[in-house]
Structure formats: structure tokens, C-alpha cells
Amino acid sequence: MMSKPLIGITLGAILGAFDGLTAWFTPAVREQIAGIVVGSTVKGIIAGIAIGFFARKFNSLPLGLLFGLIVGAILAFLVAFMQHGYYFQIMLPGSMVGLIVGFATQKYGRSPAPAHS
Q1: Domain assignment present for 11
Q2: How do residues 5-23 score in pLDDT, each as one tens digit?
Q3: Quick one: average pLDDT of 43-71?
Q4: Comparing 68 with 28, which gets the higher pLDDT?
Q5: Residues spanned by the domain of 74
Q6: Residues forming a β-bridge with 110
Q7: Residues facing residue 3 across a β-bridge
Q8: Is this prediction's pTM over 0.85?
Q9: Are 43 and 79 in contact (CB under 8 A)?
Q10: Which residue among 4, 9, 46, 59 sits deepest, i.e. has the most Cβ atoms within 10 Å of its Cβ?
């Protein structure tokens, strides 16, 4: 079993790439798909790091889901704000990435072993 931060980073990168690929459904940005996929992958990794370390500190599925959703939504909002549009198309999949990563880190991640004194 992987650690919570490692699950967050790995899943964040994979789902971030899929998030970027959803831009294909917006014809106006298809020519920028490569940059969008790379940017979304990086956004997924950043979200995964934050969510994974949160999951390591707080072992709570509801809190992990909420934190993941919030982190995903905030990062997606920042991207949409920089693009001056496409808020729904960017924020919906970005928020879902955060929610899924929040779930996976809490449910499947290995907690750190307790320190021995």
C-alpha cells in the first residue's frame, strides 16, 4: 500500500491529465490541448500533494472529501480566472479531481507508522 501523499501525487497527476483532456469538448480551445493537459497535470499534482499531506495528518473521510473538493475548486478557479472564462468547464472537472483524490487518500493510503520512543 502506498503512503497517502504518494497516492495523492500519483492519482492527482493521472486524473489531472484526464481533466485536461476534457478540454477537447470545448472546440475553441482544441488547438491548445497539449498545454492544457500539461497544466492540468501539474494542477493535479499540486492538489495531490496538499490533499495527501492533509490526509496524513487528519484521518477522516468526510474531512478528506471536503478538503479535496475545496482544494480542487480553488485551484480550478485560479486557472479559470487567469483564462477570463470557461469557469464551469474548468471548475467542474477540477473539483471532481480534488474530491476523488480526497477519497482515495483517506480510503486507500497508508498512514505513517507511529514513532517508537
Answers
A1: yes
A2: 999 999 999 999 999 998 8
A3: 96
A4: 68
A5: 4-108
A6: 3
A7: 110
A8: yes
A9: yes
A10: 4
